[in-house]
Amino acid sequence: MIVVTTETVPGRQVVEALGVVRGSTIRAKHLGKDIMAGLRGIVGGEVKEYTEMLTETRNESVQRMKQEARALGADAVVNLRFSTSQVMAGAAELLAYGTAVRLE
Question: 83 lies in which domain range?
């Protein structure tokens, strides 16, 4: 499954737009990671615990979006975007969305 942030896939022609597809994940804070992040905040530097969590969350959201696109018979997803929103104190949703298309 080709996934791009552009409106087209280089070297390929979009022959049919199948609709918007999305994948989301909601993650909550983890007390152990919060403690480590707090300590790292004191001394400075990258908060690796959150970097890893966000990487996993983005990957999971994209995989879910790709599954939805496959179910529609898509070859690709164009215009990939990410959005986040807080759903409750300490928990946030990461949404990946784009347009599922068939390519020539």
Answer: 2-29+58-103
Write the CA distances from 75 to 31, 41, 52, 62, integer angstroms. 41, 43, 29, 15
Residue with tokens 């784009």: 98
One-letter amino acid at 82 equals F
SS3 state of residue 104: coil
pLDDT in tens, 6-35: 999 999 999 999 999 999 999 887 655 556
pLDDT digits (tens, 9 = 90+) for 89-99: 778 899 999 99
Q: Let me know if residue 84 belongs to a domain.
A: yes
d(CA 38, CA 72): 44
